[in-house]
Amino acid sequence: MYSANTDRYQKMIYNRLGASGLKISAVSLGLWHNFGSVDSLENQKKIIHQAFDLGITYYDLANNYGPVPGSAEENFGHVLSRDMKAYRDEMIISSKAGYHMWEGPYGDWGSRKSIIASANQSLQRMGLEYFDIFYSHRPDPKTPIEETALALDQLVREGKALYIGVSNYDGKQTSAISKIFHELKTPFVVNQSRYNMFNRKIEGDLLPVLKDNNKAAVVFSPLAQGLLTNRYLNGIPDDSRAAKSSSPFLKKEQVEKTLNTVKELECVAEKREQTLAEMAIAWNLRQKEVSSVIVGASRSEQLQNSVNALKNLTFSVEELKIIDKILDDVD
Prior knowledge:
By secondary structure, the protein is an alpha/beta fold. The chain is built from eleven helices and ten strands.
């Protein structure tokens, strides 16, 4: 029987989501990869337990996470019911609706029909009464934004979600839906977006909007699918994601193109007495609007490395200038 580490809250940092009362761990566990029906349930259990033992309280899921779609929610629900039910009130559990889940016209996007049905299915798969945060996973260009907002608001009023978020919404879309949520008094608190040293788009577009609206960002892909680690410094390992021709997110060409940049960033990290991965996570958290960085893991040991980033979150002005200069040279 699992028993949580009694010191789990001592070294973790907890940040408030914007102006809300909700705090989440600065490092969060994402279940996008490695938690599907094709993955070892025993290994999943070890990762989830290790995360909680390290003080990670935020667990990020979506209806389509797997493969197969839905299986990550089912597996997380299994671990929660068997081992961690006693800790439910110490956890922030989220899910999302918006990407394809079932055939026909209602299985994806942002209609009221799709969002409400998907949320109900997700709650059932995970064996939960409510989500702490429920997200619209992507904006729907063919559904009025008011309809999507009203559907999410309904989930709160029905007690199926405590807070609301949006994901993959740009600054303009976030501003528009935020105004509607404000009128409805919906507890909209967070935007979840991709952010890393090689993808800085949200700095000029989204973060100013979040600041003006007192909302927070939770960011994913902080290591750029492994580029911002020492994984590829000496070539592309046969078992790596970049070596798999089927991977839609990382290709050999990307590794080769960024190799010199990664080596320069590695030198900066060494001077900070951090690994490159630790520095990359810390660099994301330098933004005041970024409350948490979502990390993935295929082994429980990797989580300790991610949490180690919190030991040094301070960047000097000179360090930031050097990093910006290195990144400016990337095409």
